[in-house]
Amino acid sequence: MAAHFFSALQANDNHWPVENGGPLFLLPPLSNVSIGHLETVFPVEYRKEMLRFIYCHQGWGLHIERQSNMYCTVLNCICIRIHGEGPDGGQDNACSPGRKWIRDHGGAVTIPTWGKAWLLQFVAPISPLILQLREELHTQAYNEINWKKYAIFEDLYFAHLLIQDLVWDSIYIFTEPFLTRWPFNNLRKKALEITLKHIHYEDENSRYITYHVLCMLACWVEDPFGDYFKKHLARLPDYI
């Protein structure tokens, strides 16, 4: 009986799919990384359902039952805009209250560290949409932003101790100048090469689906037209 039960749940390609719709930070990065390929990878009905999921859970927190936070609100607002909606577009003008919440809480600059990774780590070619988003999501000129601002209360698991902030700032101030200069910059370069090698191992072992979005981003940074990135694109419908 057990064998019949599990075989009935098995998909056509022999894997066992599972629903993981609670977190609200998994879907938006898919659109952010695959921008320029959305119409090729996702049929129009896929894109409609992606947006419908976002609209149905507005008040974006880490999970559908959590209160709004900066991380998920910024990512979901960007996702809606990438899918073609205007600054005040979306179901029930979803972008407008989301943008107001972001600006009322200090702007996207207060997004926590893992959000800054998406917004700052690597920059795509500047497009009119990127310039518009910079104006919509920030409360000051983009080139004047101090990205060292810390996350707001809604995004903190625990409040930062003063000594903790002092240690982090001191490490950054005293080590970053060395790590960006020879010979220490070679050490950083070597570390990144080794990390990327492990990412390719993981991709090949998982057939390009484990930790999909982060690995996909790394492959895009390495070569946006390379085979590794294209293999990730091919698995997006399965990841959805």
Walk me through what this model shows:
The protein has 240 residues and is mainly α. The protein contains 12 helices and no strands. The chain has helices at residues 2-9, 27-33, 38-41, 44-56, 70-82, 95-104, 113-120, 128-137, 162-179, 184-206, 212-222, 227-239. The longest helix is centred in the last third of the chain and has 23 residues, at 184-206. The chain is globular and about 60 Å long. The relative contact order is 0.10. The model has no long low-confidence stretch (mean pLDDT 88).
A few lines on this structure:
By secondary structure, the chain is an all-alpha fold. Helix content is 57%, strand content 0%.
Q: Which key phrases capture this entry?
A:
57% helix, 12 helices, mainly alpha, 240 residues
Q: Tally the helices.
A: 12
Distance between the termini: 30 Å
Estimate percent helicity. 55-70%
Give the class from helix and strand content and strand pairing. mainly alpha
Mean pLDDT: 88
Largest sheet: none
Low-confidence stretches: none
Write the SSE topology.
Elements: H1 2-9, H2 27-33, H3 38-41, H4 44-56, H5 70-82, H6 95-104, H7 113-120, H8 128-137, H9 162-179, H10 184-206, H11 212-222, H12 227-239
